[in-house]
Amino acid sequence: MERLLPRPQFDGPVTAGTAYVLVDDVTNLGGTLAELAGTIQAGGGQVAAVITLVNAGRLKPFKPETLVIRRLRARFPDAIPHTSGIDPGALTANEASTLSGFRTADELRNRAAQVAEEIDLRLRAKGFQLEAQPAPVSHEGWPCKTWLAFRPNPYPSTITVAP
To answer: Are 50 and 22 in contact (CB under 8 A)?
Structure first.
């Protein structure tokens, strides 16, 4: 869960219609590559290939099985987008596998809140402070634990775009 939150952010020019090759030294859950691909595609670029030197994730394919995504959507109708800011269909196989381990939406939300608190403490120790956000409510309407915004990311990644 700690690798899912916060999501990496990228900044840099993307040339529409240009093909890009994404290169990463090590992937764990694959979220960094997924977010980078999303940034490039949102800018009109195309991802021609993805290269990793080491895939340290438990699952080797990046794309999750359709059945896994269907089950996540059924179990957590709004919790995944609410806690991570992404649609379950955009998850990598390893991210989907991690989230599949949670039994309820409240369990997922509470773990995300705990991770947010841990990240906040680490960042405060380094002199950074995140903005407080209104606490989300559970599917049943009960308030969840403390919630902190993950954006803006205090450690933004920058892409160098080379077609």
So the answer is: yes
User: Which whole-number Å values give the CA distances from 110 to 40, 118, 124, 158, in the listed order?
Assistant: 32, 12, 21, 31
Whole-model pTM? Answer: 0.69
Q: Where are the beta strands (DSSP E) in 7-89?
A: 10-11, 19-27, 46-55
Number of Cβ within 10 Å of residue 96's Cβ equals 22
- What size, in residues, is the chain? 163
Tell me the pLDDT tens digit for each residue of 14-34.
Answer: 999 999 999 988 888 888 888
Rounded (5°) CA angle 138-78-145: 30
H or E element in which residue 31 lies: helix 31-42
93 and 63 Cβ atoms separated by less than 8 Å: yes
Q: Do residues 148 and 118 make contact, with C-beta atoms less than 8 angstroms apart?
A: no
The whole-angstrom separation of Cα 38 and Cα 153 is: 17
Instruction: Tell me the pLDDT tens digit for each residue of 62-119.
Output: 899 999 999 999 999 989 988 888 889 989 999 999 999 999 999 998 998 888 888 8
* Cα 149 to Cα 130: distance, rounded to the nearest angstrom: 6
116: left (phi over 0), alpha (psi -120 to 50) or beta: alpha
